[in-house]
Amino acid sequence: MDLHEFKAKRLLSGYGIASPEGRVAVTADEAAGAAKELGGAVYVKAQIHAGDRAKAGGVKKAESPAEARKIADELLGKKLVTPQTGPAGHAVKRVLIESAVRAQKEIYLSMMVDALDASIVVLGGKGGSGIEDRAAHGKGLESLHLGLNGERKAGDIAGFCKRLGFTGAEAEKLAATVKNMHRAFIELDASLIEINPLVFNEKGEMVALDAKIVLDDNALFRHPDLAGLREEDEVDAIELKAQQHQINFMQMDGNIGIVVNGAGLGLATLDMVRAAGGEPANFMDIRTTARSLDIAQGIGLVLDNPKVKVILVNVYGGGMQPCDTIIEGLGIAFRRKGRILPLVLRVTGNNEDIARVRIESFGLPKTQSTDMWQAATRAVAIAQGRA
User: Which residues does the annotation mark as catalytic?
Assistant: First the structure.
């Protein structure tokens, strides 16, 4: 779950990481009022889930409330396009009005889970724009691996700060910030915390000028207070509905509907469909916690897509979710939607025989397949009118 900058900063403030004083505005008049209340120069910052906002004109300085109103009026309702949004861009629905800070030194600091060894890794380097290019080329970034349970080796953070070029009081403040980020990362069940830039101001204080937090959706059951931070008006309505029914779902541009349990199996199915010359209409990962009625809701999303010409069901039944549970959801979805599409089925694992009996009772046009490649090629042939 991505958080807007202002919400990320609010959470980090609870861990001793300061940021400039700011106000959120959804109208130009509110932006002018916030600028007046803050006094002095301010920055007007578009709140979207993407980086490189400044390059796209989404972060601008205002010297007066009138200028803040003008900038906000230009941004609100506008589609901001950055390398991270894709060509469609993201609509700006709110702006953050924030007091300007004169930075003396800028630092890039981020924390994430290392996929290779499951440790928490903190990255640091020169802050400001261009960090993505520098990181892509492996330039100027130092790293430090920390424990998943909060454990740290003596002197490791101090050494990290020294490698970044900081000594004395500055190194102590930076080390304290790294420790606070580490605690926040663990306690919030985050998958990413990024501060860029983290600066020393004229008073020698550390201030986060920009911040990004991504929370692990799978851990939100432990954080009902954090679940309320999701901006539902900025989340794809289809994906949100799927999540509410224990299904990970993403709409795509093809015409072959995909029904799969398991993220890895889902990705492999997409690869096979593409290798066979077809175009998937969606990604689907039915979680083991989904029941037949949840699965029916997810399959209903596939049936709602008018582009879909065939549905490929690739299911591996396990102990927590047998094959017949998914097939039952399939039948419910078809009855509810009243739309008949050809089915290509590859069903194996726990209760597969029961699942095959159930599917026979539905009376739907179907093809049974013995392996994934046979299922993928058959689905592609149907979608392309060759079968």
Answer: 108, 194
